[in-house]
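Minutes, project huddle
Topic: does the predicted pose make sense with 6-O-phosphono-beta-D-fructofuranose bound?
PN asked that the exact inputs be recorded in the minutes so nobody has to dig through chat later. Recorded below.
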Amino acid sequence: MKKIAVLTSGGDSPGMNAAVRAVVRKAIYHDIEVYGVYQGYQGLINNNIKEMDRGSVGDKIQRGGTFLQSARCPEFKDPEVRKKGIQNLQQMGIEGLVVVGGDGSYRGAQRLNEEGIKTIGIPGTIDNDINGTDFTIGFDTALNTIIEVVDKIRDTASSHERTFIIEVMGRDAGDLALWSALAGGAETVLIPEHKKDVQEIADKIQQGIERGKKHSIIIVAEGVMSGDHCSEELKKYINVDTRVSVLGHMQRGGSPSGMDRVLASRFGAYAVNLLMAGESGYAVGIQNNKLTKTKFEDIFSSHHEIDEDMYRLTNELSI
Ligand code: F6P
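Predicted holo structure (tokens), as shared on screen:
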């Protein structure tokens, strides 16, 4: 393979730049020409494709966001629209494409693979909701961002004896909520994978107050309900002073953690290795600290699951 391209797609995540850097540098190391597609699949359709040199990715490893920029591009589901993107790649002699993104981005990559472009996916999303990998790029950084905020909220919650409801991202997955609840010592976590009775939560908070607890932290995944709705529900059962914090897009920003930079670098280099070996239609991942590859169709064939042991542990430690 002589020419490859890389793009970032869907919601950005800290570490995407490190992944692009690894793809570019690894390709150049092996004398492969490498191109950056700007603005995800939208840029592929619009022919916003530029050659990268080793300097193009200098001073990027520590930066959040994605310098290639990203876009959600529902039109890419249309085969006629995809054809334009494929033609743009073929006219430049580009045979392989690395797509850094989440589940939706992988579906586009799978189609491109079926339609003649060799594609490899790299899991980039803060949600950690992709099958075939223990971790996605950006999850660790987002987790650390949340924990920092939870620690700060705990200070003021304690001073005012309040119950705080902190709404975190994750789309339909509870990983960010679960991990931040465990790491932040939250009293309660609500995740889409497990139904919890609001009355039960209210009873637990009441018992805590009776034992002299000065505050309570409830972490609610956006996939369950909004923080405001959670507060309204809680107040049906208990008379507590509540405040709601919706962390929002701050969870997507910031300089990537060391873990995310290393993960992204390993994924990027491995994706190039696979393309060089003529492989296509796979997403890379990490399982038990070993790099793995999984066919796109296997990734889509089942729902992402949370770590049930961790859920149990979080509940056991938050008594
Ligand atoms: O998939 C990443 C994510 O941040 C989700 O956690 C969240 O639900 C969604 O993207 C928000 O999307 P947007 O930035 O398009 O509002």
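Observations noted during the meeting:
- The chain has two domains: 3-138+256-301, 140-253.
- The longest helix spans residues 139-160.
No decisions taken; revisit at the next huddle.
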